[in-house]
Structures are given as C-alpha cells and as structure tokens.
Amino acid sequence: MTSAPHHSMAPPAVTANEQPRYSLRLRLRPKALTTGYVDGAWWPRSRDLAAELPALLAVLAVRLGEIPRVSYNLTEWDSAPRQIAAAGVRVRLSGFWSRPPHTVDVVAWDRRRLTLLLVSPDTEPSAAHHSMMRAAQRENTDTVEVLLRGDGARESTVDVVGAGSNCIPEQTFQGVR
Question: Long-range contact list for 89-96, CB < 8 A, 24+ apart?
Fold first, then answer.
C-alpha cells in the first residue's frame, strides 16, 4: 500500500511587517508568581489573528523573549495561517476546537506561558475596560466566564475601583517589564 502526498489546505506563513495603527489594548498582571485562570487580558480590534498578533507579540517579547507558539480557540477567530513571521521569528499558530474559549496562550522558547483573557473585538468599551482591569489584578482568581460577564463584579475577587486606576486599557500595557 502506498500513501499519497499530503497537501495542506492551510495558507502559507504570513509575514507581518506593518506597524499597528492603534495602540495595543493589553493589560498584564505584575510579573510575579500568580494564581488564577489568566495572566492578563487582550482586546484585539478584529478577528484577524494574523493581523492582530504581531503587535501583541512585540510587547510580550519584552517579558518572555522570543515567542514561537500561540494557541487559541478556533471559534474566536477568522481562519488563520498555521504560522506567521513576526519580528523575524516564525510563530506557530495552533488552533483547537477544544481549547478553552475566550483565551489565548502565548508560549516562549523556554516554555514559559502567558494565558490571556480574550475580550471580543465587538465588546462595548466600558465592559471591555472593566474585564481587562479585573483580569490584570495580581490577586484575581476569577474564571474567564466571571471576568467577561458584565455583572461579574458582584462575584469578583477583585475591587477594580479600589485598584486605583482610571486608565482605559489602550492607554497602557501595564505590567510589561
């Protein structure tokens, strides 16, 4: 029995050279041992993963170094290539149906991992801001569902108002060091 060559249906790697036109909407927990479900939150402007990732990876590389892999839930994004080239690094994009929804994992060469809450691009700005602020608090142990729920503040482990920040997420990517 002979096997036929396998031809991938996935598009080839994409090179992302374009600079972002808008500031990155990202909040990260302070760099320290953490507990909880997420290490921060990301609010992309579209469902085009290949277009959104280069700016995110450039910022996260400050904390993690080179990032060769990103895994995501397939239902959250439009179709994406299997890999992109960002800042000269080939990044493997691993989409899974079974991956927890509303999260993106960013994996460094040394296998350090950041799990980010994915706030949908069409989320109302004040709700997105609230979810992102809660996700970035060091003591937050809320589930993804609670973080994204508009009324989740009653169940939350974090007092966002008490956290002392009135910045909207696109004004800062606090926690990147």
Answer: 89/57, 90/13, 91/53, 91/57, 91/67, 92/68, 93/49, 93/50, 93/53, 94/69, 94/70, 95/71, 96/71, 96/72
Is residue 167 in a domain?
A: yes
Phi, psi of 167 (to 5 degrees): -75, 140
- How far apart CA 172 and CA 149 sit, in angstroms, is 23
pLDDT digits (tens, 9 = 90+) for 132-175: 999 999 888 999 999 998 654 444 444 444 444 444 444 344 44
| Alpha-carbon span 150 to 131, nearest angstrom | 8
Q: What are the helix (H) ranges across the chain?
A: 49-64, 125-135, 144-148
Number of domains in the chain: 1
State the residue range of the domain holding 160: 33-171
**Does this model's pTM top 0.85?**
no
